[in-house]
Amino acid sequence: MINLRKVEAKDKDLLFSINQKYLYEMTNFYEDEMDEHGNYSYGHFEEYFTDPRRIAYFIQDDEVLVGFAMLCPYSNIGQDPDYIMAEFTIFPSYRRKHFALDAARLILAKHPGNWEIKYNEKNPKAKKLWTMVTEPFHPQVVHLNDEETVFVFVNDGVR
C-alpha cells in the first residue's frame, strides 16, 4: 500500500542521492550538464530544509522506498498557487504498478488548494499520468513553450 513519509533533515543525504538519479533520468528531456563532481544542479535543494513552504515526501510501498515528490508554492506561470509539483518520480523498477497514480492522488488528497503541475511534452508517460490525475479537476492547460505544459487547477478536496 502506497504511503507518504515527509522528508526530514536527517533524510537530506538520501533525498540528495535519489534526486541526482532522477535528474540524470531527466536529461532524456532536458539538456542539463553535470558539474565537476558528477552532480546535477538543483538550485533550490537546500530550501527544502529551510523554507517551510517547501515539502518533500518519500513515496513508499509499505516500508519500501519507491519514489519521491517535492512540492513548493512558486509558480511557473506567474500565479500564486498553494502547491506546485516541483519533482515527482517512481523509480524505474517500481513503475507499471499504479504507484505513481496512487501517490499523486494521495498527495492531492493531503493538499487541497490551488495547484500547478508542469510536465515536458517529450515525456509521454508524465503527460499521461498528469492528464489522468488532473482530469477530475478540469485543469486550465498552459503551454509555456513547445516542450513544457502546465496544468492549473483547484483541488477542492472533494474527489
| Arithmetic mean of pLDDT | 91
- Give start-end ranges of low-pLDDT stretches: none
What CATH calls the topology is Aminopeptidase
Helix content: 10-25%
The total of helices stands at 3
The CATH homologous superfamily corresponds to Gcn5-related N-acetyltransferase (GNAT)
Question: How many individual β-strands?
Answer: 7
Q: Which second-level CATH architecture applies?
A: 3-Layer(aba) Sandwich
Q: Which percent band covers the strand fraction?
A: 25-35%
The major pleated sheet works out as: 7 strands, mixed
Structural class: alpha+beta
Distance between the termini: 20 Å
Radius of gyration, in Å, reads 15 Å
Short description:
The chain is an alpha+beta fold. A 7-stranded mixed β-sheet has the order 1-2-3-4-5-7-6, sandwiched between helices.
Q: Would you write up a description of this structure?
A:
It contains three helices and seven strands. It has 159 residues and is α+β, with helices and mostly antiparallel strands. It has one domain: 3-Layer(aba) Sandwich (Aminopeptidase), CATH 3.40.630. It has a seven-stranded mixed β-sheet with strand order 1-2-3-4-5-7-6, with helices on both faces. The chain is globular, with a radius of gyration of 15 Å. The two termini are 20 Å apart. The mean pLDDT is 91.
Key phrases:
7 strands; Aminopeptidase; 7-stranded mixed sheet; 159 residues; alpha+beta
Lay out the secondary structure.
Layout: E1 2-6, H1 12-26, E2 55-61, E3 64-72, E4 83-90, H2 99-110, E5 113-120, H3 124-134, E6 140-143, E7 148-155
Parallel strand pairs: 4-5
Antiparallel strand pairs: 1-2, 2-3, 3-4, 5-7, 6-7
